[in-house]
Please model this.
Amino acid sequence: MTPSRRHFSGFFLLTFNLAVNWCQVDGFGTFVDMTEKSRAKDEVPVLGRGYSSGTGIYYSKCLRTVIPEDDDGDADEILADATRSASFDYDYSLVKIQIGTSESSTGADTKSLVKAFSDTASLGAALQAVEDSKDKNKNSSEGEMKLQLMFALMSIDKYSVSLREDFVDLDVNVIALLKRNDFTGAIQVCGPQFIRSIRRTAEVLGIFTYLSVDGPEDEVDLFQETLEEDLEGVSKEDDKEEEGAKSFATFSSLIIKITGYGLDLSVGKGSLIAESLGDYSDVMESAFSMMLNPHTGLIKSIELVPWSSNIHWQAASGLDTTLVYSSGSSEKRLPSSIKQLNYMANSEHIVEMDAIAKYKFNMLSSLSQCVQQLWKMSEPMLCNSYVSHRQTPFNSEHYNGMRSWLYDQRGMDLRIQNEQHFWRMDDEEQYVIQAYRLKYLLDGYAESTDQQTTLIEKLTTVYSYWINEYLGRCMKALTADIKGVRSGTIFFTHWASLPECYKPSCLFESAYWSADDNRCTLRRTIDTHWEKLVDGFCGLDLGYDRTLQWGDQCEISLDSIYG
Model:
């Protein structure tokens, strides 16, 4: 899978950094909402770990906990000492929905559910329960049964566990990098920022589904009232509870489903399984104890702080000192605040270039692997195989359109350039493509010029131009010695002031280096939209169809098949 990243973040950083370049900032944090990424289990924000808000990329954890010599506590106690405790907000919501026999009768209740759970991880499970109940309700006759849903959501907002800088220090390897003025190496390892605090949430959702048969209205209402009071924790009179149970036994069947998010399952002696309504209170007690650990839970937001504002980073890199240098016959000073701001802006620019370089390299690697797989296939297999789009399934209309278009091009001399050779990316080949066609396009035979040079050769040349002419020269300029300070340009000069770096069009992932213009261009030098082909079809989800043919390479007579 190829990476997906935001475009054009470099311009935002440029504008922001130029705007604050004349302000003295000793230390500040920026909070980033992680709600959309909170369910991504392959991304792990950790206190002290590096991060770039410009690229959204995590880096190594470069802060370590300092253990006092006289401290013989366990790991949990040391972690508690190194962090500031979180505050807790508790919420308990109860939403009831009656599933109607039509979309309109259920829609209003569903809107209230979305409004109540809009900012929670449980919304998806709740909406899925509504959809499942709609399917069940189609088999019921209106007037005979009423399908009811009740949602009980318990949530805790834990804000925010933060690092105490007097209990942490830089990793010794990072200190060694900074001491020998390898600032770019330290940035590429740790990123331009680090995570100082994390806000987490934990949730437990109870879904209660019951089917009420029409009966005496007072008994049906009594069951529903009893259920609501049980879920709300309201004390009941014994006779009312008994009558409610009778109504439950006579008129309803109850299904209980419990889902939890961000729980610490290492604590709590009870289970999260409720076999009856009577078990629900025990489940909630167990769930509550599993939600209290401030270091576990879904990530709600993180606080980012530039490394240039960290006292340990400042001491190791010299950012906390004022530079004094000679300019002609006078002596000038560069305040530490200006050094820190330039360093922060240049750090973001370095990781942005690094991320674009990695993206381009990964795309080339994916293309190379895909072409190798296609070259391993025999020509008959290439002719009679089709490749499905990885993200968008095709239907019979898509497939028949692709197959008919291929048949219309039968016998075409592929050695003569023809506009029909190009990828039909918005038409017949948008969702499914013949394997031979995919190989033909990725080999570069559909290019308008120089079909003898493979596509990957052309792209490798273009990539090396961008690396050498832009990234290489910009990095050399940023790390140059200045005013007698080794690698001092990263402190003295904002990257936008360097001619080698201030080429904004080079900060697009799709940018190409133009040797003629000595700058980056967004004009495509490659005709084939190979990035979309790689993203959409490489991975080769193959199918077989002996009726496929194209051009003069697949010599199969299909007249009897097509008539």
About this structure: Residues 231 and 281 are 8 Å apart (CA to CA). The chain has a mean pLDDT of 79. The first helix runs from residue 9 to 19.
